[in-house]
Amino acid sequence: KAGVTQTPRYLIKTRGQQVTLSCSPISGHRSVSWYQQTPGQGLQFLFEYFSETQRNKGNFPGRFSGRQFSNSRSEMNVSTLELGDSALYLCASSLDPGSNYGYTFGSGTRLTVV
Amino acid sequence: DQQVKQNSPSLSVQEGRISILNCDYTNSMFDYFLWYKKYPAEGPTFLISISSIKDKNEDGRFTVFLNKSAKHLSLHIVPSQPGDSAVYFCAASGAGSGNTGKLIFGQGTTLQVKP
Fold first, then answer.
1. Confidence class of residue A110 from pLDDT cuts 50, 70 and 90?
2. pLDDT for res A100
3. What are phi and psi of A101, to 5 degrees?
4. For chain A, which residues lie within 8 Å of any Cβ of chain B, measuring from their own Cβ?
């Protein structure tokens, strides 16, 4: 059974650019959450999608957005990149959205903004 | 406001001994607590969880204890093995649809198990 797949694994972007990250959940999983990990702030919740609807959102500026497709794959977009957006972005998927312990994480996308 | 805190950034133990990782929380509405293990360049891997209605959950070498009155939980690893060396994150979730999919993580504790 394939795990959660995130692409690309590494990305270097310039300040002011925008970036799109992709997440393919485990087959059958309909809930997808996104997290940002930085040395200073740790792991922080970005948003959660279920059946193409955003159900929950963390405390991030509007430059951070996401979407989910009918096949449960999800993308997140960051516009007008800032140096502080450099981080590891993690995606997690779950079969049962009510069971928070059931979230499986991908390996992440390492974004570097220069 | 750090709702979940892991006050020890690092812990070093000898192989075969017990590792105890601690976590404190402030929000009494959390209903599930989880521990994740993370290696560099990989995503967190789920280890064990505990519901707020329980005080202990055991899975092989891993046991999690929850003290609700003290808002404290701990992860015990017995016996510790060198392969356990990683960063351990404590996480919490709240009840209700507004909290679905949202885990609040502590800052992590780096465990080093020496052979």
1. very high
2. 53
3. -75, -10
4. 4, 31-33, 35, 42-45, 48, 50, 55-56, 58, 90, 92, 94, 97-98, 100-101, 103-108, 110
In the structure encoding, which two tokens stand for residue A20, read together?
Answer: 């799109």
> Around Cβ B46, how many Cβ atoms within 10 Å?
16
Residue of B98, B2, B93, B106 whose CA lies nearest to B50: B93
Q: Distance between CA B2 and CA B5 in Å, rounded?
A: 6
List, for residues B74-98, the tens digit of each pLDDT value: 999 999 999 999 999 999 988 776 7
- The total number of residues shown for chain A amounts to 114
The pLDDT score that the predictor gives to residue A39 is: 85
Confidence band (pLDDT; 50, 70, 90) for A101? low
Residue of chain B minimizing CA distance to A100: B101
